[in-house]
Write a structure and sequence with these properties.
Layout lengths: L1 H47 L11 E5 L15 E3 L3 E3 L8 E5 L3 E4 L11 E9 L7 E5 L8 E5 L2 H4 L1 E6 L10 E4 L6 E7 L4 E5 L2 E2 L18 E3 L12 E10 L5 H8 L5
Antiparallel strand pairs: 1-15, 2-5, 3-4, 4-15, 5-14, 6-11, 6-15, 7-8, 7-14, 8-9, 9-10, 11-12, 12-13
Length: 267
């Protein structure tokens, strides 16, 4: 009888031990699933470019976040306002944005005479909110053939036309690309040049245009870089609306790198 009781007790203890082991295995299995889920999320974020992009890499010429100031957060090419340019907190793509009233601009004198070479890109966000009947400069170092490169909006299509281009020894004027960007909405634009091919992207879509317009180095001009107006050679054509996350690069961005910049948006 005592032996039977001992066997019964051993069976009960074994069952309890088995139940505990199963519970622990289940917990470990759930933990592993959670780890796998977190790893998958981390991989997804890396692929989106959120975490693997150095905002001030060696290829960045200047970077203007417009969160609290007009300074270049990477290399000290700080912008100075001419007229009244506002800083609109919490209105931009990532926190603040620069707000232009159709009669003001930002001037970057330290980039006057900069040697742009044959590797160049510019990326920014903009939202045009007024004065659709005017041409409006977004960023440049001179108007049309007066500069080395520009991105500018037209008055056509109710102020929705946008053009861009570069100037080289064999291409004397800009607007190698022209397309439309809807009024009163945020848009991302990027222009890239590698010495032989010029690409223009609007909202992460590569646009059709004269990609083989130009060869060699961009022409050198002793003009300031201007944000929010058409630049040297034009006294009018001020921008009306918001501009944010302006970056200049001394390299030709790839399509994947343009996508990473496009995915910065949170509005």
């Amino acid at each position: 009888m005592a032996k039977l009781a001992m066997i019964f007790l051993a069976v009960v203890l074994l069952q309890l031990l088995t139940t505990r082991v199963i519970a622990q295995c289940s917990a470990l299995d759930q933990l592993q699933k959670r780890i796998n889920s977190l790893q998958a999320e981390a991989d997804k974020l890396k692929q989106s470019g959120c975490c693997n992009q150095d905002p001030c890499s060696k290829d960045v010429i200047a970077y203007y976040k417009f969160d609290r100031s007009f300074r270049d957060v990477c290399n000290g090419h700080n912008a100075v306002q001419v007229g009244s340019v506002g800083l609109a907190a919490s209105s931009g793509i990532s926190n603040g944005a620069a707000l232009f009233n159709g009669a003001s601009k930002l001037r970057i004198a330290s980039l006057n005479g900069y040697t742009w070479g044959s590797q160049f890109s510019v990326s920014l966000w903009f939202k045009r909110t007024g004065q659709q009947g005017n041409y409006q400069g977004i960023i440049n170092n001179g108007y049309y053939s007066y500069g080395s490169w520009e991105i500018r909006m037209g008055r056509e299509n109710s102020g929705q036309k946008i053009g861009a281009g570069v100037v080289t020894s064999n291409s004397a004027a800009t607007w190698n690309y022209a397309t439309t960007a809807s009024y009163n909405h945020w848009h991302h634009v990027a222009m890239t040049y590698d010495g032989a091919t010029l690409n223009f992207y609007l909202d992460n879509q590569q646009q059709k245009g004269n990609s083989k317009c130009c060869q060699g180095n961009l022409v050198n001009k002793t003009n300031d870089v201007i944000i929010g107006q058409a630049g040297h050679g034009m006294s009018r054509e001020f921008f009306y609306g918001y501009i944010d996350e302006v970056k200049l690069f001394k390299k030709a961005l790839t399509a994947d790198e343009v996508t990473q910049l496009y995915r910065l948006k949170n509005v």
